Amino acid sequence: MATTEQTTHPDGRVELTDPDVIATSRYGNAELAPTRLRDRNWTTYNYAALWMGMAHNIPSYLLAAGLVALGMNWLQAFVTITLGNLIVLVPLLLNSHAGTKYGIPFPVFARAFYGVRGANFPALLRAFIACGWFGIQTWIGGQAIFVIVGELAGKGWTEASVVGGHPWTLWLSFGFFWLLQMVLIWRGIEGLRRFENWAAPLVTVAFLALMIAILVKAGGFGPILSQPSKLGWDADFWKIFAPSLMGMIAFWATLSLNMPDFTRFGKGQRQQVIGQIIGLPTTMSFIALVSIITTSGTVLVYGSAIWDPVELTRRFENPVVVTIGLVMAILATMSCNVAANVVSPSYDFANALPRWLNFRTAGLLTGVIGIVIQPWRLISDPSIYIFVWLSFYGGLLASVAGVLIAGYWFIDRTALVLPDLYKSSGRYWYSSGWNWRAVVATLFGSILGVGGAYSNPGAGPFPADGLIPFLKPFYDYSWAVGLVAGFIAFYALTQFLPARKPATV
After folding, report:
1. How many domains does the chain have?
2. In a domain, 238, yes or no
3. CATH code of the domain containing 74
4. Which domain holds residue 147?
5. Is residue 341 in a domain?
6. Which is nearest to 35 in space by CA: 86, 80, 102, 124?
7. pTM score, two decimals?
8. How far apart are CA 53 and CA 336, in angstroms?
9. pLDDT tens across 188-240, in order?
């Protein structure tokens, strides 16, 4: 089916009839324009490999290891992580649909409900969180380089003079790894796809090798799997389970918004759906099991849970083993970091300043902000990593996901007017480019989700009674509360105070 401006193909995918119709738009550039059908060539394997590359990384490993360090046994940690990833897969696939159907990235998709200008609100919120993740991953990769060089250069490197709380050689390693990723970013999205395809299997082998090494030292699976939970299955466990589950969901809350950045290149809905179902829950369950077994083994071998795989790798005496293991860790970090934490903010920043920033320059901006955020502070403790960093931003982004799902599936019924996403006179202009309904719904969902943010005394930045005390009980369910509240608020506001008629394309 064709209209004067957009064409719907037999498989349901839509493209602009004439791409030049938005060529002069101040709200578009080459990266933000809808992907032409001939360029949508990602297969099921590409999406499965993408998730393998993104999920097989050290922060994913730290999720499971952190739960063990907090007192869960292997079964409790495994169930928590697997359930979390099955839950987050639902909004992730729902929001992925628009990318494949229309060939548009997340910030352009958001324009349909927040307005052509208003989309900068959720896009920049998501972008700054991605910058924080980029910094965390870069710090971890820098630590791996620091250890590798230390194995070869000796104590002169590892015991160098301290600057800012760390050896200056660690800062140097951090800077080198940052520069390495900037080079990969400069190669663009196709360079990233090729890197993911060959890096993902190598990373899998590396984590398996680390687990096998610990199993040998611990005497097999038996002693590891028989370790009792420090929390039991009573109130102590359930008190930690709910916020931990929200943290597991929040780990991919960012991708549940911006998967259109990747699915816009898909050959069809079937390829992206099957690829993601194969890639996310299975891969995360695998890495969780490997991490749980490995971390539980460290309790037997070393007397305490070593939740950082870089630190664990340092314990092995053979320098060849240490070097190979950490090279794999570096590949894992690069694979995840550039895909999950650079692609999205690059589009998001470019959406805010389309005439000034493109994918490459916005990616460099992401790298700079990732340093300014001081990521070494965010992963200093598993409680802060899971209950502060993950839980808080998960609640914020969940409300955005609720708005997008309500708007795309229940209000517009997946029908968008593609050219109007780039116009200042179309159906998505609302009031001066902003749809206040989406903004209010997002703020409402965010306040309910994280307004009661609290920390145990001495274990985080929030007051023990919560930022807003009467909302404290909601914080343990931050992601679920934010998603439901954002969805209901946006749907209700749109129904009772409509801004425009449904699309008729």
Report:
1. 1
2. yes
3. 1.10.4160.10
4. 29-379
5. yes
6. 102
7. 0.84
8. 6
9. 555 555 665 566 566 677 778 778 888 888 777 766 667 666 777 777 788 88
